[in-house]
Known about the structure:
Elements: E1 2-3, E2 7-12, E3 15-20, H1 30-45, E4 51-56, H2 76-94, E5 99-104, E6 108-109, H3 111-117, E7 121-125, E8 132-133, H4 145-155, H5 157-166, H6 172-178, E9 183-185, H7 190-202, H8 206-225, H9 228-239, H10 242-259
Helix pairs in contact: 1-2, 2-9, 4-5
This protein binds octanoyl-coenzyme A.
Amino acid sequence: PVEKFHYRLHFVHSVAVMRLQNPPVNSLNLDFLTEFCITVEKLEMDKSCRGLILTSNQPKVFSAGLDIMEMYEKSPESCGEFWKAVQEMWLKLYGSNMVTIAAINGSSPAGGCLMSITCDYRIMADNPRYSIGLNETQLGIVAPFWFMDTMMNTVGHRTSEIALQLGLLYSPSEALKIGLVDQLVPEDQILTTATQTMTKWLAIPDHARQITKSMMRKPTIDKLMSNREVDIQHFVNFITKDSIQKSLGMYLAMLKKRKS
Ligand code: CO8
């Protein structure tokens, strides 16, 4: 097992199991994303590693999505650097040659949902207290086109229109119904199920599966690849607006208040 600051990594045969561990809620901050991308890149280059299972080592939460503190009252430079790291995470995962499976053992809003839908297959713990979805509009922010594209590639255009405009967070059974996740299992079976599913996917010859995956995802990936700088500028201009900062501030206050 490899113990890193933000995750634990262990290998079962040719499969890496990564347990995200950024307390309390696995929010995706710059440090986390940087470490995560370096690790995924290493796994990608390691010929003996053919599959990656992503899961959480934190109770109740898979990932709370992007760290709002990275977008709140930050300089345009920091926002730009942060956004580049978010793009990088998406590019690494969505374009991975490995079989990627999300074992979603907790809530997975916004960036957490994005991370899940970059994977080839999603298994979620059947706990009605958990939810998953792209809830950006509820924060007064707009999911960028590549979040939308990934969602549309997963659940189709019509369902995405509703999901994204309303910023819906779905319960596991609703998520299964719309195809946002592929399978529900009791929480204590999530890793064994992920491992069994992985075995099935790895039985397909790598080259044929990889080319197929790449053909299906390439247009979506190319769209961001050819627009990375513009997308960063767009994000920075948007997120640093007074009105957007105000929305984020209100959302943060709501998160704190909900707690007390
Ligand atoms: N970022 C920063 N801090 C967070 C986040 C987050 N995403 N989520 C939770 N926290 C903080 C809470 O404020 C709280 O802080 P404190 O202890 O100081 O009060 C602490 O983490 C623990 O949170 P909770 O007490 O709420 O923990 P629970 O276990 O009760 O709930 C949840 C866990 C369900 C994950 C809940 O915290 C939650 O709903 N969080 C918000 C999730 C969210 O809405 N994330 C959206 C982030 S935006 C994003 O990912 C995409 C943005 C795309 C940008 C496009 C712009 C152009």
